Amino acid sequence: MKRYIPQQVEPKWQQKWREDKLYSPDLGNAKNPFFNLMMFPYPSAEGLHVGNMYAFTGTDIFGRFMRMQGLDVFEPIGLDGFGIHSENYAMKVNIHPFDLSKITEKRFLEQLNITGNSFDWTATVETYKPNYYKWTQWLFLKMYEKGLAYRKKASVNWCPSCLTVLADEQVIAGECERCGSKVEQKMLEQWFFRITDYADRLINNLKNLDWSEKVKIAQRNWIGKKQGINISYEVEGSDLKVACFTTRPDTNFGTTFIVIGPEHPDVYKLTKPQHINEVKEYIKLSTIASKEERIAEGRKKTGVFTGSYAINNLNGEKLPIWISDFVLGDFGTGAVVGVPGHDLRDFQFAKQFDLPIIRVVVGKDGDKTDITSESQVQEDEGVMINSDFLDGMDIHKATVKIMDYLEEKGWGKRVTTYHLRDWLISRQRYWGPPIPIIYCNKCGTVAVPEKDLPVELPFVEKFRPTGTGESPLASVEEFYKVKCPSCGGQARRETDVSDTFLDSAWYFIRYPSTDIENKAFDTQRSKKWLPVDMYIGGAEHSVLHLLYSRFVTMVLFDAGLIDFEEPFTKFRAHGLLIKEGAKMSKSKGNVVNPDQHIKEYGADTLRTYLMFLGPFDQGGDFRDSGINGIYKFLQRIWMLQEKLDGQNEKLGIKDLKFMHKTIKKVTEDISALKYNTAIAALMEWLNFLSKKQKLSKEEYQAFLLLLSPFAPHITEEIWEVLGENYSIHKHSWPQFVNEYLEDDEVSIVIQVNGKVRDSIKVQKDIVGSKEAIQKLATGTPNANKYLEGKSVKNVVYVEGRLINFVI
RNA sequence: GCUGGUGUGGAGGAAUGGUAUACUCGUUCGCCUUAAGAGCGAAUGUCCAAAAGACAUGUGGGUUCGAGUCCCACCACCAGCACCA
Distance (Å) from CA A756 to C1' B55? Predict the structure, then answer.
């Protein structure tokens, strides 16, 4: 018999599946819709990464499995081609993004095609095509209409290399997520989305979602809801008041100073004339310094004194007011109380500027001495001292007590704050959807009417960012010079484009409606297919993409445009694929290209190999040496055809047991995304089948069906050779029968003091009797050796498993 | 520092509190072949010539008849977040 040659067979089926629209459900009329979604890739010019293939294959296997459960599975794919990533690459290779997108698109679609995924090729999206971003712009207008998009001059993260602003989420440890440059602060007029209005809902809804717990935790942490109190301090010799946010008002008797951030609105009002020069100098320096630089200096605290004092109402103490850049302008009130005994940063600041330190909490170490070193700073549980009416209370009780007291006196007000900030949407770049807004001197800010969408991104030769804080589009007169849609007068178009994350925050809603041109999405289609039933993607999108998508979905729900407020019913994060113990990266030069492996072994082999590496949710370690084993595995399955004879061999009881045991195992493992053990179970069954002289068609077919989600081509090919109806991928999944899962004979382990000494095989009908088993067990020579002459104190019997003699 | 995760043979990894090391790779030996990086069979945690046995799931304790699994403390690595009051 000839060996299986994937290079000949795989393209044949890929083409046929596509021509037959095998994986395209009837989007309008499907009876059992199941939306199986993978995160769409951004098409880099290097082509599809094996990490992408890993993620896609894992998602596809689940989709194929569900399809064989009789569901109408919709598994679309698209390209997230807009954005800084693609644009930076275009600059690097000096090809215009328009041209580059055509090249990468072609390459990506070819690669995606040969991976053997069951994509619906009739419903794809490309975020950089006008027929898609038209609706991204429409979404912006919806936000604007609902008062959720607003423009504000703000201190924003500015990447001096990408020459654009970045959202907080795109700044990683003070560096640009894309290029790694140190991020600076800059004041610019920007568009924001009011995602903070949805903060509570974004937290509360989490508990009802079937998502990986770690992703939920990451989102909760990112939103960072905190209950605290704003305490208002009078400033000595002034009408001004300084409000400070704190979650630990219990320590308020330990306050010895106040610190405001350089961005605080009253900075200059609070500064006494004799300090003005120092303050100006400090503020200048702190806005230039990047966040990274501030941290880099060993967290050494810097600051200046304003000359003003606030009064602590609780005890009449004078609190010097300082300015320091460790206080963030946009969190809480932009001012903090300095409690150096019970906050490490405050301690460092107090040490730096020689400010007094008072202990007000005694921790479980019982230390009541003065706090003079960092290790003594007590931030945890404890009991109050030196705090007047709070003395002797634990900190939680004291917190409630003092909050009540401060509110009663009118000195403070309970508030909730969030770490989450409004979503900064504007980008001063070229490669994105232009924000559909027009500025008119007479009418002000005017939305582009829906009928005028899309605002097409013009082909601009000079697409590189300018560095002036304006988009390259700002120098294209034909683009920005427009008539006001409201009064018809001369007006100017917004020249910034929107953040890439907006493109990907709604693409899943577009997928079922890609053939509909006059709407962003069709209501009936959305009703049928959405929300997404299963979403699989990388954990690195835990906060960015997943949070934005949830926000957008909530907004559309509130606008009455869709009937669900959470986009992804079930989400699972896959693990990271590494290469021989190291992370794959271009700089290390160890990135695996799926093409060469597909060429050599075929997509089926690579798919199955990737899934065999380890648990899908934990990732795997790619080693070239292992792939050949999977290739041989598939070859052996092919060769099993030799063991078929025309007669249909009857299955013995052992055969049936093995078959049903495997069906059960594979079914359960795929449901739980434990692909590696599902494949191992198939290997064990193959080893069993290989030893047989003759094979029954029934078991061979069952084997192929179980394997088909992993290796769709070879199974389809054999299926055809066997003369079965096309296609195996539409065939129903094998069912296991419980009666074949039980054994007549059971092996019972004999332990003495918990150590295995022997085992016996007994008939199933006596396992219920401890006495019978004990008698049999005592009689075995090995057990007897240990039990002889000893008095047995206790006998533990676990039915059908083991018996343990305690001596 | 905070949050989450992981630690098991030479390697990737299995294991509802119940025979640790399934499955795969690698290595070694044998068979087959003109030959092969092809196929078939066998062995493979450590100590010991072997048997018997003892010891082995990052470290140290604990719970239990019995712990890779549960609890406590610690160590290492990975990922994410980080001067958030």
Answer: 15
